[in-house]
């Protein structure tokens, strides 16, 4: 267990993604595995980890797959949760892309930051908040990669990262990009909520009441804060129903629906439907200048 504040671990410089795949998947995926190892995506992951280079855009489809090989894979692993006939039939590149997701999830994190959407996010937040120096509290930050990306794309942003390190399997392997204050969401909110303009929660654990509890506390203490939620929507694999019901009940208005291009540029992995939501729980029509412009136009 790291000491109370993680000050960033040294980068794993040499081909960590390749090493990870080789150790974890050798022999399981045959041709697909080789192509994934040689893919542009894996090169980009290594560049992110080793050199802190955030790509403008991730190359998620950088290989071809062979039908015969997939067929053999399917025959061999027919009980595997994701190797279904449906996948084989409709998504011939699915397995390779599924490996991309696993590589990224285990080494870096769950939201996939690229320069384009993260910059768009910071621009929109500056606009909504009508200020340049924006402070964000991030809950359950994981490796802090997204938070680092936010500060990298817009240096006037400051993100306080917190996580209780309960996902020990993830924290043992991941590469850290940011200082992480080790505390659970409740303590983090109680400690930092009055110092920030917005709260970020990305990929809160599925079927877990943590996000609901966090949102209840935020709404009790500072309902005027924007909530940046990244993950799948109701019925997906993040948080629990109570979280989404509470957003509805408190009439959280998702600003990304009408006013931003963030989700045009948000990238996600095959079979995953996460996106960015920016909730305003004190939404009033006409509050945002460009909304009024839109109406006039
Ligand atoms: C799916 S990961 C998401 C990490 C990161 N936000 C991302 O998008 O990559 C979930 C994270 O939640 C953390 N976590 C789980 N329960 C928590 C709690 N009650 N308080 C703080 N962090 C928690 C885990 O340690 C893990 O890092």
Major sheet characteristics? 8 strands, mixed
Shape: globular
Helices and strands: which structural class? alpha/beta
Question: Which fold does the CATH topology of the largest domain refer to?
Answer: Rossmann fold
Mean pLDDT figure: 83
Which parts are unreliable, with pLDDT below 50 for 5 consecutive residues or more? Answer: 1-10, 84-92, 291-297
Radius of gyration (CA) equals 20 Å
Q: What order do the strands of the largest sheet run in, or round the barrel if closed?
A: 1-4-3-2-5-6-8-7
Distance between the ends: 56 Å
Bound molecule types: S-adenosylmethionine
Estimate percent helicity: 40-55%
Q: What is the tally of helical segments? A: 15
Question: How many structural domains are formed by the residues?
Answer: 2
E-strand count: 8
Which CATH class of the largest domain is shown?
Answer: Alpha Beta
Strand content: 5-15%
So what's the oligomer here? single chain
CATH architecture of the largest domain: 3-Layer(aba) Sandwich
């Amino acid at each position: 267990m790291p000491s109370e504040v993680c000050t960033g671990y040294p980068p794993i410089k040499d081909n960590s993604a390749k090493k990870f795949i080789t150790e974890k998947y050798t022999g399981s995926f045959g041709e697909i595995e080789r192509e994934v190892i040689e893919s542009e995506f894996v090169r980009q992951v290594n560049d992110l980890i080793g050199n802190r280079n955030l790509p403008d855009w991730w190359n998620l489809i950088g290989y071809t797959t062979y039908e015969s090989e997939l067929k053999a894979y399917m025959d061999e692993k027919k009980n595997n949760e994701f190797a279904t006939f449906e996948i084989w039939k409709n998504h011939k590149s699915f397995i390779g892309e599924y490996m991309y997701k696993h590589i990224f999830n285990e080494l870096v994190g769950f939201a996939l930051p690229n320069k384009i959407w993260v910059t768009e996010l910071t621009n929109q937040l500056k606009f909504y908040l009508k200020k340049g120096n924006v402070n964000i509290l991030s809950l359950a930050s994981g490796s802090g990669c997204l938070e680092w990306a936010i500060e990298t794309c817009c240096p006037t942003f400051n993100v306080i990262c917190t996580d209780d390190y309960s996902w020990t399997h993830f924290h043992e392997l991941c590469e850290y990009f940011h200082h992480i204050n080790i505390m659970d969401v409740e303590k983090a909110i109680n400690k930092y909520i009055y110092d920030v303009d917005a709260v970020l929660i990305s990929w809160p654990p599925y079927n877990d009441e943590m996000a609901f509890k966090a949102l209840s506390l935020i709404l009790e203490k500072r309902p005027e804060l924007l909530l940046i939620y990244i993950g799948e929507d109701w019925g997906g694999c993040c948080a629990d129903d109570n979280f989404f019901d509470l957003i509805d009940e408190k009439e959280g208005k998702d600003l990304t629906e009408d006013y931003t291009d963030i989700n045009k540029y948000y990238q996600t992995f095959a079979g995953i439907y996460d996106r960015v939501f920016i909730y305003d729980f004190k939404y009033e029509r006409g509050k945002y200048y460009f909304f009024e412009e839109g109406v006039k136009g």
